[in-house]
Design a protein that fits this description.
Chain lengths: 265, 560
């Protein structure tokens, strides 16, 4: 009389992800904030490792930093910027940063810089910081220790200020090409997409260089990998974003779109 | 007898029996009763003497409203049932007040008249109390109360003169009234210190006068009288819609009073007790640590006082004063209701920011007084953190860190973006102080798509990632080295060839698009902006948005 038919086990990916989020046990390798899939191969641990420092530089560094934190922001992390007064918030939203969880803090005076950034690193998952003054070694070490302890990620934007030590992961935009403007004396077209080449360097597991070509953003507005083979896509024609193939077993994975400089050189 | 402006406003029963009436001139009153002591009117003295009398009434009914010294109103629905009917309640109230007055006004010989009236509304109850006093004559002590049966209030009022409304209006102006449909009791008791003693009614007219509104009401009453509406029944018989049309809000109020209704429901609230706590620091405190230590115990006091009322603070104003009279006041908000530790923490942050701030704003002396004022309180319900989504520990931590940074840098240094409409990247998103919004709630104003209007002529995506607040001025030259101009029809004078300076040096333009003219707010001469935009890519591969305004090019944004 209680037979309501066979119990069907339905795939519930949402439930599974909820279960992962609610799981109390956290392994070291899980201490990673999600990154956009297209950027994952550039990052050790395929995401923003909690407690690490990431430096971005080169033309398009701001967009790259925004794209880096977009995945974490969409997953619910709070992002705070310190001293980035001229950030384009429209661009941040277009690149995937959730403006509902973005806070902007004005540049603190050099004397209280360390205190302010440390207080923010205590509470925020992601801190995007740019300085125009030289950071004291003690401040930088304190900040790194705080980030390691609390599990925040510090993202450095290029500014006039120098950091006493390099970041754990350095992402450098080595080349950027804009598409969309028609050549010639008529001023036709408009900026529509940018193709960039990003090189990773860094310390420890990030020390092995990785090079990637990306649309930042692509013609459809999203960050997408550039298909290297077959023949290079013309910058003006929209390319369909190709997702990286599944990771091969063992070793550092380099999908097709990602070419290590050592192999190409 | 009590005089104000050469007129009698109140007189003791003994004087009244000699023919002294409120409204009488001083000379006439003294002629009728030369023995009576004459006192000036002093509302503050009356209130001071009357306060303990009102307190005596607290034993009978919980919500007592003092209309004016000498006159109180209370709702009878609850206490009446408890006392065994309105009549019994009125008698008990009269006895209580008379007993309290005996002790308070010895010079009157225990002789104030206490009259109580009960009716469907405060104005009618006040009339009933006056009737009860008149019926008994000027005798000391409580007189037999007059209870108007429920539903017969309009008939009770009907035969009164229209001029009575003036007193009703004065009552309404002082904020009395009863719950609609519920009955109210009015107790009038003479209470001048010294010799006074009368029914409450006439004592009220001299003192309760929110001036402007009352004058308008009295004018309206005069008009009603001249129109031939001599009784309240005649006023009440008018159709309400016509009264509104002819007399406006004053007419409505008078019509309601004449019909035995009240202008407003009785306010059933006690005045909020003083919840602020303060401590004087002697010797003055120079160090943040010490001040924070003091703040802990102060915060403990505050939360205990609030908890005693079943309240919790969501917003607290911390005021610090120095010996030299400097003052720093800052409000702190926390949705999670501030506990003692959280309050102490905020005091510490605030003082930290003040004492270690720039010398111009730093206090010149130690802190001598610290005050915590709960600016917003809610019923203390405890709180529930979200399990999945909603309010989480992370949000709470972020909010706390922001409060700390606000303490260090000032609340205007911590901002959150909100979507606004606009054509340029700097207009589309505005920054508002984080202190002004509630970060633990969803903020739809920050979401993309919040602005649904199309804004024709806005900059298309992708948007520039760097938008300087103060666009640097540059020179845009053509191949011949002349400044590039844009004609009134939106045509460039020549293709641009060089931007100078860009990153400290001159750069050659490799590609460009535009110009796109933008003519904004042409209807407002002060806000009018006329610009032409140009996207350029220069030889190092970077793209920029240039704008020409008033003959000068500037870098409005950079596609970094």
């Amino acid at each position: 009389m209680f037979d309501d038919g066979p119990v069907v086990a339905r795939p519930a990916p949402d439930l599974r992800s909820l279960g992962t989020r609610a799981r109390p046990l956290t392994l070291g390798a899980e201490r990673v904030l999600p990154a956009l899939p297209v950027l994952a191969p550039l990052l050790p641990g395929r995401g923003l490792r909690r407690g690490s420092t990431i430096g971005v530089s080169g033309p398009g560094a701001t967009s790259l930093a925004l794209a880096l934190v977009a995945g974490a922001s969409q997953a619910g992390s709070w992002v705070v910027t310190v001293g980035v007064e001229d950030l384009g918030f429209v661009a941040a939203g277009e690149l995937g940063v959730d403006l509902e969880r973005l806070v902007v803090v004005a540049a603190p005076p050099p004397g209280s810089w360390g205190t302010v950034v440390a207080a923010l690193a205590d509470a925020f998952d992601v801190v995007i910081v740019r300085t125009d003054h030289r950071i004291r070694g003690s401040d930088a070490r304190r900040l790194a220790a705080r980030a390691r302890e609390r599990g925040g990620v510090l993202c450095r934007l290029p500014g006039r200020g120098r950091w006493p030590e390099p970041a754990d992961v350095e992402l450098t935009v080595t080349a950027a090409t804009w598409a969309g403007l028609a050549p010639g004396p008529h001023g036709a077209g408009r900026l529509s997409a940018r193709r960039v080449e990003v090189v990773r360097s860094g310390r420890r597991e990030a020390a092995r260089p990785v090079r990637a070509e990306l649309w930042l953003p692509g013609p459809d507005g999203a960050v997408a990998p550039v298909a290297v083979r077959p023949a290079a896509a013309s910058p003006t024609t929209p390319t369909t974003p190709t997702t990286p193939t599944a990771p091969a077993a063992g070793g550092l994975h380099c999908p097709q779109a990602w070419v290590e400089p050592s192999r190409t050189a | 007898m009590v005089l104000h402006a050469n007129r009698v406003v109140a007189a003791s029963p003994a004087a009244r029996s000699e023919g002294v009436e409120p409204g009488l001139r001083r000379r006439d009153a003294q002629a009728r009763c030369p023995e009576a002591a004459v006192l000036p009117a002093d509302p503050a003295r009356d209130a001071r003497v009357f306060e303990p009398v009102v307190a005596a009434l607290d034993a009978l009914c919980p919500r007592v409203e003092v209309v004016a010294p000498g006159t109180v109103a209370f709702a009878t629905r609850g206490p009446g049932r408890w006392a065994g009917g309105d009549g019994a309640l009125a008698r008990q109230a009269g006895d209580l007040l008379a007993a309290a007055l005996v002790g308070r006004a010895p010079a009157a010989g225990g002789g104030a008249t206490v009259a109580v009236g009960v009716a469907d509304g405060a104005f009618a109850a006040w009339c009933a109390a006056g009737d009860a006093a008149d019926r008994a004559g000027p005798v000391p002590g409580a007189v037999a109360p007059l209870v108007v049966p429920p539903g017969s209030t309009p008939a009770f009022l009907g035969s009164r003169a229209t001029a009575t409304l003036a007193d009703g209006a004065a009552l309404a102006g002082s904020g009395s009234g009863s719950g609609s449909g519920g009955s109210a009791a009015f107790a009038g008791a003479g209470a001048g210190a010294g010799t006074s003693g009368t029914t409450g009614g006439t004592a009220g007219t001299g003192t309760a006068a929110p001036a402007a509104g009352l004058a308008a009401l009295e004018r309206t009453i005069g008009v009603l009288h001249r129109l031939g509406l001599r009784t309240l029944a005649a006023v009440a018989a008018l159709p309400l819609a016509d009264v509104v049309g002819r007399f406006g809000p004053e007419g409505v109020l008078l019509h309601r009073l004449a019909s035995g209704l009240d202008p407003r429901p009785l306010s059933a609230r006690r005045p909020a007790p003083e919840l602020a706590v303060a401590i004087d620091l002697d010797p003055p405190v120079e160090r943040v640590d010490t001040a924070a230590f003091v703040a802990v115990s102060l915060a403990d006091d505050l939360t205990a006082a609030l908890a005693g009322q079943g309240l919790a603070a969501t917003r607290i104003v911390v005021t610090a004063e120095t010996e030299h009279g400097e003052r720093l006041e800052r409000a702190w908000r926390d949705e999670g209701t501030l506990g003692p530790a959280a309050i102490a923490e905020r005091v510490r942050w605030q003082l930290d920011g003040w004492l270690s701030g720039p010398p111009a704003t730093r206090p010149t002396a130690g802190i001598s007084r610290l005050t915590l004022t709960p600016a917003e309180v809610v019923a203390a319900r405890g709180r529930q953190l979200g399990f999945w989504g909603g309010e989480t520990r992370v949000d709470e931590r972020a909010a706390r860190a922001l409060a700390r940074v606000q303490g260090l840098l000032g609340s205007e240094a911590v901002l959150v973006p909100e979507q606004r409409g606009g054509r340029s990247p700097s207009d589309k998103v505005a920054l508002v102080p984080a202190a002004a919004v509630d970060l633990t709630e969803a903020r739809p104003a920050a979401r993309a798509g919040y602005v649904a209007e199309p804004w024709p002529g806005q900059l298309p995506a992708p948007s520039p990632a760097v938008v300087p607040a103060d666009p640097p001025v540059v020179e845009l030259r053509d191949a011949a080295g002349d400044r590039v101009r844009v004609s009134g029809r939106g045509v460039l004078s020549a293709p641009p060839a060089e931007v100078d300076p860009l990153g400290g040096r001159s750069r050659a333009v490799t590609a460009w698009a535009g110009p796109w003219p933008v003519d904004e707010r042409w209807w407002d001469p002060r806000a009018h902006r006329r610009r032409a935009r140009l996207q350029v890519v220069v030889d190092d591969g970077t793209a920029h948005l240039l704008a020409l305004e008033a003959g000068r090019w500037s870098i409005e944004a950079t596609y970094d």
